[in-house]
Amino acid sequence: MSPTLALSRMRSSRLSDEWFSNPRADILAGLVVALALIPEAISFSVIAGVDPKVGLYASLSIAIIIAFAGGRKGMISAATAAMALVLVPLVRDHGVEYVFAATILAGLFQLAFGALGVGKLMRFVPRSVMTGFVNALAILIFMAQLDHFVGEGTAVYLMVGAGIAVIYLFPRLTKAVPSPLVAIALIAAAAAMFGLVVPTVGDMGELPSSLPGLALPDVPLSFETLSIIAPVAFTLAVVGLLESLLTAQLMDDMTDENSDTGRESRGQGIANVATGFLGGMAGCAMIGQSMINLRSGGRTRLSTLSAGVFLLVMILVAGPLVAAIPMAALVAVMVVVSISTFDWSSIRPDVIRRNPRSETAVMVTTVAIVVFTHNLAVGVLCGVLLSAVFFARNVAHLVEVNDIVDPDHNVRIYHVTGELFFASTNELVHAFDYFEETPNVVIDLTDAHIWDGSAVAVLDTIVAKFERHGTHAEIAGLNPSSTELHRRLSGHTSSGH
Questions:
Q1: Coil, strand or helix: which one is 423?
Q2: How many CB atoms lie within 10 A of CB 290?
Q3: For 438, which DSSP code?
Q4: What is the SS3 assignment for 233?
Q5: Which of 333, 268, 335 is nearest to 38 (CA)?
Q6: pLDDT tens across 155-176, in order?
Q7: Are 28 and 197 in contact (CB under 8 A)?
């Protein structure tokens, strides 16, 4: 087989795997996602204080573009609550045109992050933070549904209950059609048949009847404008990228696949830049909709594209039908998503007893902060910082110092083991006997590593203390990187291996 033919077959196989390995399920899953996207996009527009069409245009634009440009197949991106919350002060103080400008700049920041490989930093998010992120998101998804059915009457409660029952029970009959889609259809049909007056998608806001058009944001091209939008845009870029990469990592764990974090970063940037020119607000990956897609059988990029295309069709062609769908049907879908998203094993008593207390504390803290602030990025950042504090505290106690004396009592060797950095060296200075009777001391760091200037300063202090008491001290056994750091920062000589 020629190299050209082999390469062609490889590309064809990759195209099939990413797009056409699961077409029927992907298209149906995309339809379910599109139905759920409409009320959420409108809700997020209300949160940000902009017209509903801004959120809807953003959702269809980002979903379609990310299907081609994103780094994770089957993941849904659109307008989100986290991004809407960031935009509230900008809309209030300067208006919607500044939102479009900030969205474009946020996309440019994300393109830069992708080029710099910022996505690789996701490896530093601990598992306990990921679990807290997932659990908090499940709680937020559930809480967001309460306004749509609490206090709305018995009919709405029954419809929500019936929808949940259909979603769980219908797969026992057949899995040919996604059960969330069946639930939406049955509840909508029942409401129309019995003439039930219940909240509908149309009550959330007017659906647009035309396609978005390309236009430059109507803002002054000045440094003053840049100073207004830059802080907001940077926050949007970081929040959006963090939420997208965490969602991608969660989906990787559930499907045993790997995401391209660099491509996802760039894809989010491309989508937001285009969306800003199309009159939409900034968006990112949506874990709730991604879970709906996954649960409905969506696995490839075709499901993401289908969601965007169906959303476009529903807005332009089937607007009246979509507007008549009871909100109770979509609430039922989202409640099931919240239940399936929550990691119930993380709160089992036996798991809590088995896990280190620090990890449980990190998970609970992440959940509490996210639920309290409604900001996933803040909660994850706090969780990572708390994990770092616990890690530093644990590592600080892993440094050991043992000593031996040669038979002639001429040299005492202190053997240091562990990682030497700012947190682990605070007590190191007290681990030596400075009133030595032996004239020479060797501090052997063969099994240690110097990480920062704090460790170098402590070692210099130890050597100086010995010298003040008339004992010659020498540092030995440094590995090459530790030797280089010590040479640059220290006022004392040392010897490597």
A1: coil
A2: 27
A3: S
A4: helix
A5: 333
A6: 889 999 999 999 888 888 877 6
A7: no
Alpha helices (H) in 80-153, listed in sequence order: 81-94, 96-116, 127-149
Which CA distances in Å does 190 have to 148, 155, 481? 18, 11, 72
Q: Residue 208: its pLDDT value, please?
A: 72
At residue 34, does pLDDT exceed 80? yes
Task: With a cut of 70, say whether residue 40 has pLDDT above it.
Answer: yes
Residue 473: which region, alpha, beta or left (left: phi > 0; alpha: psi -120 to 50)? beta
For the chain, helix (H) and strand (E) counts, in that order, are 19, 7
| Residue 371: Cβ-neighbour burial (10 angstroms; 0-12, 13-18, 19+) | middle
Please give the angle made by the CA atoms of 75, 133 and 125, to the nearest 5 degrees: 90
Which of 75, 97, 78, 77 is CA-nearest to residue 87? Answer: 97
Q: How many CA atoms lie within 13 A of 367 on its CB side?
A: 19
List, for residues 467-484, the tens digit of each pLDDT value.
Answer: 888 888 999 988 888 888
Q: Are 242 and 375 in contact (CB under 8 A)?
A: no
Q: Nearest Cα to 191, choosing from 321, 38, 334, 316?
A: 321
Percent of the chain predicted with pLDDT > 90 = 19
Confidence of residue 123 (pLDDT cuts 50, 70, 90): low
**Mean per-residue pLDDT over the chain, rounded:** 84
Eight-class DSSP state of 217: -
**Secondary structure (3-state) at 78:** strand
Cite the DSSP H helix spans in 174-222.
179-194
Check pLDDT > 80 for residue 496: no
d(CA 207, CA 313): 12
For 182-225, write each residue's pLDDT tens digit: 888 899 899 888 888 888 877 766 667 777 788 899 899 899 99
Helix (H, G, I), strand (E, B) or coil at 20: helix
Phi-psi sector, 205: left (phi>0), alpha (psi -120 to 50), beta: left
φ, ψ at 405 (rounded to 5°): -120, 140
User: Using CA atoms, how far apart are residues 127 and 146, in angstroms rounded to an integer?
Assistant: 29
3-class state of residue 102 by DSSP: helix
